[in-house]
Structures are given as C-alpha cells and as structure tokens.
Amino acid sequence: PASPRVRWTPRDMLDRLAGRLQIDLLVNLTLRDLRSKYKRSALGWTWSVLNPLVAVVVYSAVFSVFLRIQPTTGDPSGLRSYAVFLLVTLLPWQFHVTSLTEATRSITANGPLITKIWFPRWVLPTSAVLARFLTLLVEMAVLLVLIAVLEGHFAFAWIPVVLMLMALQLLFTVGLALMVSAANVYFRDVQHFLGVALAPWMFLTPILYPLNMVPEDREFLGIDYRTLYQLNPMVSWAKAYRNALYDLRFPSAERWLAIVMATVIVLAVGLRIFRRLEPRMAEEV
C-alpha cells in the first residue's frame, strides 16, 4: 500500500513547528529543573540516593525495630527484608510527593515569564514531573544493584515490568500535577492543602506496612475497611511494584486494570481542568 501523503500547507508546517518548539521547551525546562536542584552541591546526584537511604534507616528503626512490623515473605522469591520491602515502594512514593509539591508552584513561580511571553503553560508542571522522573530512574537502577549485592536478590529480569509501571505512574502524576498547578494559580491555598494531605496519604498507602494489616472484618457504611482502603489508587502501584521487585512475580490483572483506569481517568480530567483554567492564568498569576 502507498504511504500516507504528507501535507505541506503553511498551516500544517506551522503546526509541526509549534509541536517541535513545545518539545524543545519541555526538554530545556526539565534540564533546567535538574540543574537547579543540584546547583552548587558538592555531592550532586549522590543526594538522590542518600535521601531515600537515610529515610529507610529511620523508618526501619521505628516500624521494624520499635513497632515490630514485619514484612511479608516474598512469594515466590522467599525474601524477607524490611529494608527492601520498604525501598521498592518508598522510591516511587517520594517521586510522587516531590513531583506534586514542585509542580503545584511551577506556574506561580514563573509568573514574570508567563506575563511576558506566550507559551503552552502545561510544559511547566510537566517539566517539574519529568525532572523528578529522571531522578527516579537513577534511584531505581541503584536500588536494583544494591539489593542484588547486599541481599543476593536479583530482580533484573523484572525491569520491563517496572518500566511499564513507572511510565503509567508518570502519566498519572502528570495528570494530578496539571490539576493542582492550575488550581493553585486561582486558589493559593492549594499548595498548603497539598502539603497537609500528602502525609496522611502516605500512611493510607501500604508503604511502611503490608496490606494484610488492613482489617477485613470491620465495616464502614456496609463496606469492609480493606475494600475502602483499596480505593486509594496508590495502593495498586505499591502492590504492583512490590510484586515485581520483592516477590519477583507479575502483578495481577486486577492490579493492572486498576492502574490503567486510574491513569486514564486522572490524565483526562487533569487535561480538561488545565485547558479550562489556562486562558486567564497570565492575569491571575
């Protein structure tokens, strides 16, 4: 069959040029965010590894030693390590938190730029998320090497599954970032509310403890606690990451369905809200 004919009308060429410029702008802003994070830092990218390691030491002492919370035994891996159990979900969670925190202020922090020139505003929150995503890639690579060396736990074969989960989480987080960054232009309380909401959200996600600690024999409005608990979309990501990197098995179809549905819905809603609020941003910022 003949290849589709490429149109070269002035309008089509302008559309292609605009798309290319948007991608270039997104890349430049992402690199700018990365450079600014480690500017004048002696350790640079090392901090992206040290921060989660320090967090693991603290959380392990509090939850594993003092509160005696025990991790599940990896099935079928047989691994039983609270540090690995925690890290495989803590790193994606920290990406989620830092991305949303920085994306929320990304438009208001660039007020002078927005009022002077026009460019698609969505690149600001998206670049903030992408910068943190690149950091997550480095952290996850280091994690795989560390657990292989220290625990003899080889999860390299599951990298394709982890990359799929990370890609879906990236889109999910971009959707949320578009919502909160746009809303924060009009209601500056959003950034403060987000800071308050992220802490309980973490404790309502099975990061520090296994899912089986959530009771099934108690109900609220006729629905058991665990069913209500799993309405939190981050529960599915936590379980899926743990399945791949801790248990060494493929996440269930139910988990994949929940993750894909959450991603599609949140991204679609985020884009719709952002497009609705974008026209007056330069006036409100």
UniProtKB/TrEMBL annotation:
Q: State the InterPro entries in the record.
A: ABC2_TM (IPR013525), ABC2_TM_bact-type (IPR047817), ABC_2_transport (IPR000412)
Q: Keywords for this entry? A: Cell inner membrane, Cell membrane, Membrane, Transmembrane, Transmembrane helix, Transport
Q: Quote the PROSITE patterns the UniProt record gives.
A: ABC_TM2
Q: Any signal peptide, and if so, which residues? A: none
Protein's UniProt keywords contain Transport: yes
The compartments listed are: Cell inner membrane
Membrane topology per the record? Multi-pass membrane protein
Its Gene Ontology molecular function terms?
ABC-type transporter activity
Instruction: Please provide, in alphabetical order, the Gene Ontology terms of the cellular component aspect for this entry.
Output: ATP-binding cassette (ABC) transporter complex
Show the Pfam families listed in the entry: ABC2_membrane
* Record-annotated ABC transmembrane type-2 domain positions: 43-277
The portions of this protein that span the membrane are 42-67, 79-101, 122-149, 155-180, 192-211, 256-274
* A biological process from GO: lipopolysaccharide transport
Q: Which PANTHER family match?
A: INNER MEMBRANE TRANSPORT PERMEASE, TRANSPORT PERMEASE PROTEIN
Name of protein: ABC transmembrane type-2 domain-containing protein
Organism encoding this protein: marine metagenome
